[in-house]
Amino acid sequence: MASSDKTIDDSLYPIAVLIDELKNEDVQLRLNSIKKLSTIALALGEERTRSELIPFLTETIYDEDEVLLALADQLGNFTSLVGGPEYAMYLIPPLESLATVEETVVRDKAVESLRIVAAEHSAQDLEIHVVPTLQRLVSGDWFTSRTSACGLFSVCYPRVSQPVKAELRANFRKLCQDETPMVRRAAASKLGEFAKVVEIEYLKSDLIPNFVQLAQDDQDSVRLLAVEACVSIAQLLPQEDVEHLVLPTLRQCASDSSWRVRYMVAEKFVDLQKAVGPEITRVDLVPAFQYLLKDAEAEVRAAVATKVKDFCANLDKANQVHIIMTSILPYVRDLVSDPNPHVKSALASVIMGLSPMLGAYNTVEHLLPLFLIQLKDECPEVRLNIISNLDCVNDVIGIQQLSQSLLPAIVELAEDSKWRVRLAIIEYMPALAGQLGQEFFDQKLRGLCMGWLNDHVYAIREAATLNMKKLVEQFGAQWAEQAIIPMILVMSRNKNYLHRMTCLFCLNMLAEVCGTDITTKLLLPTVLLLASDPVSNVRFNVAKTLQKISPFLDSSVIDTQVKPTLEKLNADTDVDVKHFASEAIAAIAAVSTKRQV
């Protein structure tokens, strides 16, 4: 008898622990117990999970949102634990309760799990168990249940009988006309996915009137969601139907009184263009695009500016150049000098992409003047976006033409009296060098880069040394050996000690990218020479440089050349020189100990 009691105790144990933990005051403990539900279900077995665990969970759904969210998530993967698809209906009651709670994230997760569970039902079970759940949610007193209902239509509709389909369409219409904006918003957000599963005749007769109504809603949050549905609907309809069923609403959205709705049209514009085809684009979307390009709201102009390249790329090839030149470029020209920096930056990130579409002549005549304006823009992002995309213009008009037109502007900026402007150009130089190639760089830009090393502003000299390192990473150590190291080494003999210091900073940077050979052969002798410099600032920077470049030197070179120099500096009369020399000696000793180990 005792052993049989023990078996009963063991079998009750998982559910007893769960009940205990779910009643605990500690939220974290309750949360952990929910996350272990699948383990508990496995211990109980399928039958007891159906008859005890699920009813218990359904009855005790009153908790913190965090716990409810975890429960909604868990139940979506519970079908196999209740006995497979033929028992999936047991999961509906707890999920239905969760789909009506106040917290949006919990409801959304419950609907997501309901969709998974509904898809696992057979067609017959779907009508018997899921459709009545959907209908209860649709007629719920609270808006929370009605918003959740919107997410279930597209899963149920394809697998139910014709009479039930008619009921579902009627229910969806009811939600589209609901008095609560939150419900209409939910219906608008699910209209596109529902449209994809409804037969074309009912799409025209039932759903499009709903779409038109939602697009004219008094709440802009509903209208902007109708724009997303517009893309899905346009993709499903033949061209002639798009023209009279969708376009009037689209035109109205593009000139909506709310900037948020117009912004959504701008965001979805290329998707809409692909959905409606070239003819409707030419007649209707081009004027709408123009309208948005001169919108009063900067956010809308910025959103549509990012679509300029893609919109033009998707135009009918036969009329592409003509439409861009006559209908798009005049508006783009105005945006180049837009008062808002975000708009100008958005345009600068895509405008170069028009070059391959318009060809060499139009690029030189019409686009290059715009690029020049953008290159001189006060906003650094605009300048960066132009410089970063020069390669696609280079491919169209060639390096010669590019250098004649844009290079003078870059040189002018590089020598600007405002040091921040010079600094910005230095930061773009590696990107520019990568796009223009080594030969062109050596001819036209190398002199500029060397000039910055002698700038009177420290921030410029510092940025110029980092620029050197990035250029060597781009063009290689061999290029550095021939093209820039000889010019940097000359600086070590300059009368101005600041130039000698800059030389050391450069050698610091270059050792990392030039490797042991070049560092030992070319860089080290100059560093050692400067150890006898009359200026103490130069001498202590020699100590710092030797510490920095020592990882790139062989131990024999360190022993015979670096250490004696540091010992000499450690006996210097200047206190700072001694300090940095002793630091370098200690650091090098630590590194060599590690090497030996």
TrEMBL record:
The UniProt entry, under Pfam families, shows:
HEAT, PPP2R1A-like_HEAT
Keywords from UniProt, A to Z, are: Repeat
Enumerate the Gene3D superfamilies for this protein. Leucine-rich Repeat Variant
Note whether Repeat occurs among the keywords.
yes
UniProt cross-references to InterPro entries, sorted A to Z: ARM-like, ARM-type_fold, HEAT, HEAT_type_2, PP2A/SF3B1-like_HEAT, PP2A_Regulatory_Subunit_A
> HEAT repeat ranges?
14-52, 168-206, 207-245, 246-282, 285-319, 328-366, 367-405, 406-444, 523-561, 562-597
Ranges for domain Phosphatase PP2A regulatory subunit A/Splicing factor 3B subunit 1-like HEAT repeat come to: 278-359
Q: Which family does it belong to?
A: Belongs to the phosphatase 2A regulatory subunit A family.
Name of protein = Serine/threonine-protein phosphatase PP2A 65 kDa regulatory subunit isoform X4
Q: Which gene encodes it?
A: LOC101897881
